[in-house]
Amino acid sequence: MIRILLAEDQAMLRGALAALLGMEADIEVVGTAGDGESAWRELQRLQPDILVTDIEMPGLTGLELAQRVQRHELATRVVIVTTFARGGYLRRALDAGVTGYLLKDAPAERLAEALRTVHAGGRAIDPELALEAWGEHDPLNERERQVLRLAGEGLSAGDIAARLGLSQGTVRNYLSEAIGKLGVGNRIEAYRLARQKGWL
User: Fold this and answer.
1) How far apart are CA 180 and CA 197, in angstroms?
2) Distance between CA atoms of 63 and 57, rounded to whole angstroms?
3) How many Cα atoms sit within 13 Å of 94 on the Cβ side?
4) Beta-bridge partners for 27
5) Cβ contacts of residue 149 below 8 Å, gap of 6+?
6) Which of 32, 59, 123, 147 has a CA positioned 20 to 30 A from the CA of residue 175?
7) Inter-CA distances, 126 with 121, 154, 196, Å
8) What residues contact residue 55 under an 8 Å CB cut-off, 6+ apart?
9) Are the C-beta atoms of residues 127 and 117 closer than 8 Å to each other?
10) 142-197 in CATH: which number?
11) Rounded alpha-carbon distances, angstroms, from residue 112 to 18, 24, 52, 127
């Protein structure tokens, strides 16, 4: 049996995915979680073969969960199922050790096939997205990404500095670097463009 932990913040979708996967003879959904922090706790408790997660969730994102799995060298493989058809997200997911990346509008049977492929040690990546991911370079470094994400949430330079343990001058430098790299006029435009490309 392939033991699955399902992390998805939309309850109806979580229930539907669990029911669909439960109909497969060789797949067992051993647990579900509605946010990133509870997914992390369940992951450690249940030690499933595969974590199926969305990207955007409260607490920890699917990418942050994948990074934790990688950092703690857990045996669980990570498959992301998302609406974000953006190459930037896929590149970051692959960097975090994700072995499956599918879009939510894919046929249900493709998810079951992908889980079998990943469980057998392979990769299951949406092919069109894979092509797009290698066409465009993400110019931001991790700290610029962090600062820009918080700025996009409406935090001031002072708030960002306090949150990240940096000086306000350093925060302004990171924002200015990000704005320059993206070739836009201000932090809001930089945030919008980076979100659109899947770099945040």
Assistant:
1) 16
2) 10
3) 14
4) 2
5) 191, 200
6) 59
7) 17, 33, 19
8) 61, 62, 63, 80, 82, 84, 89, 93
9) no
10) 1.10.10.10
11) 11, 8, 11, 17
Its pTM stands at: 0.69
Question: 2-133 sits in which CATH class?
Answer: alpha beta
Q: Please state the domain extents for the chain.
A: 2-133, 142-197
Beta strand 2-7 with 27-33: parallel, antiparallel or unpaired? parallel
Burial class (CB in 10 A: 0-12, 13-18, 19+), 181: middle
Buried b (16+ CB within 10 A) or exposed e, 136-165: eebebeebbbbbbbbbbeebebeebbeebe
How far apart (Å, rounded) are the C-alpha atoms in residues 2 and 27? Answer: 5
Residue 62: count other Cβ atoms within 10 Å of its Cβ.
29
Q: What is the pLDDT of residues 80-94, one digit of tens each?
A: 998 877 777 888 888
